[in-house]
């Protein structure tokens, strides 16, 4: 068996002024992780791992450790996200679905007033804007695995199971299919999502794209942060009315109960890895263009050598995307949801050679498929959930990607 050649990695500062990073992306093999204009974009494939099943995280950790060990790195910037970096997207469940780690040939990063380019075993590219993407042609939406009525029946079934004491909360998802006449240029929805949802993390890895409001875990120089979202209300577009709705959300016993489950599951998962933690007593309301969420930022100081990906594994699936208790919720999802989630609601993000990185939850997301796109949305179900209200919430959660695909 031949040993793979070492990866020759070089990071240097560049002056790109105010050029948006997404404008640099070519149509072929782009990756992205951006929020408010900062983050990472890349293209090309210097190394790649595909894995699946219950060992998908440990397989990826082992592969990354081996890849880092054989890299020769020259880093003239020294920020998180410089040097050797991988991007990853992981399946929600052990099966079905595959998971991937990709090392791009070129990564361009921005943090504050610093911008850099990393090359992996290739010459440094000329960094100029690429031709603008074009909108999808012949876009048509249709129901996925279940229509609205069928999905409400599933929600009602789950409420019955919760009321009988089987579990406390379950997150149920549904999908929507968009077909097009021509293959979609993923840069089109990425640019629109980044502009419309700048407070979210706009991502694309191996066909999975979206704008997630939920940071599963960030590890940076010994500090860990996880943003928990659970409890949602749709915005009306009327500022005064939305403020009143935000106050209603903050007092809602149903939403506060759902949120408490999610925060508790994150804090319990991080606690073994942290020497000190800060878990706020009450959530704040996060305002996004289409919805508002109850949100809590859990912070800690890492006392072990767990990488950001290993921390993500320990957190997944949190109550925000699975339920409580986790084992009962994931069994119910497999039994009644009626569709494969694949990478929806799984960890997506990036990691550098030190193990620092950011892993979000693949929410407000979609997957490129043959002939179009598969969109996803999910809702937290508790004993007091109303199927019609949950259907409306799921429709609101389709809006970001659905609008981003449109030509308007």
From TrEMBL:
Thylakoid found in the keyword field: no
InterPro entries in UniProt: ADC_synthase, Chorismate_C, IsoChor_synthase
Keyword Nucleus: no
Enzyme Commission identifier(s): 5.4.4.2
UniProt keyword list: Isomerase
Catalytic activity: chorismate = isochorismate
GO molecular function, one term: isochorismate synthase activity
Domain Chorismate-utilising enzyme C-terminal: 149-397
GO biological process: salicylic acid biosynthetic process
Family, per entry: Belongs to the isochorismate synthase family.
PANTHER family (UniProt xref): ISOCHORISMATE SYNTHASE ENTC
Identification of the protein by name: isochorismate synthase
The species this protein was found in: Nocardioides cavernae
């Amino acid at each position: 068996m031949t040993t793979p050649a070492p990866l020759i990695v070089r990071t240097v500062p560049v002056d790109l002024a105010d050029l948006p990073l997404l404008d640099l992306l070519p149509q072929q093999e782009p990756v992205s992780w951006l929020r408010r204009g900062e983050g990472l974009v890349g293209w090309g494939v210097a190394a790649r791992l595909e894995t699946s099943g219950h060992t998908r995280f440990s397989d990826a950790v082992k592969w990354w450790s081996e890849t880092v060990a054989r890299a020769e790195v020259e880093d003239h910037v020294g920020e998180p996200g410089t040097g050797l970096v991988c991007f990853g997207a992981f399946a929600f469940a052990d099966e079905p679905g595959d998971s991937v780690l990709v090392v791009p040939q070129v990564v361009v990063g921005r943090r504050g007033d610093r911008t850099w380019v990393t090359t992996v075993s290739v010459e440094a590219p000329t960094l100029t804007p690429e031709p603008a993407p074009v909108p999808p042609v012949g876009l048509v939406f249709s129901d996925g695995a279940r229509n609205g009525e069928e999905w409400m029946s599933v929600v009602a079934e789950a409420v019955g199971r919760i009321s009988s004491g089987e579990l406390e909360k379950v997150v149920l998802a549904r999908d929507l299919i968009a077909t097009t006449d021509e293959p979609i240029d993923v840069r089109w929805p990425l640019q629109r999502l980044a502009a419309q949802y700048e407070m979210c993390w706009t991502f694309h890895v191996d066909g999975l794209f979206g704008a997630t409001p939920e940071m599963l875990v960030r590890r940076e120089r010994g500090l860990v942060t996880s943003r928990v979202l659970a409890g949602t209300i749709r915005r009306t577009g009327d500022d005064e009315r939305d403020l009143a709705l935000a106050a209603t959300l903050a007092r809602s016993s149903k939403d506060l109960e759902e949120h408490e489950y999610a925060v508790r599951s994150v804090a319990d998962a991080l606690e073994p890895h942290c020497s000190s933690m800060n878990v706020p007593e009450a959530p704040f309301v996060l305002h996004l263009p289409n919805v508002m969420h109850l949100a809590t930022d859990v912070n800690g100081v890492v006392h072990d050598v767990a990488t950001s990906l290993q921390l993500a594994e320990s957190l997944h699936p949190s109550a925000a995307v699975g339920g409580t208790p986790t084992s009962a919720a994931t069994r119910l999802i497999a039994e009644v949801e009626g569709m494969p989630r694949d990478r929806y609601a799984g960890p997506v993000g990036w990691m550098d050679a030190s193990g620092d990185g950011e892993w979000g939850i693949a929410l407000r997301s979609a997957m490129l498929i043959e002939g179009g796109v598969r969109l996803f949305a999910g809702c937290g179900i508790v004993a007091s959930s109303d199927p019609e209200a949950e259907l409306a919430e799921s429709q609101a959660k389709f809006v970001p990607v659905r609008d981003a695909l449109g030509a308007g």
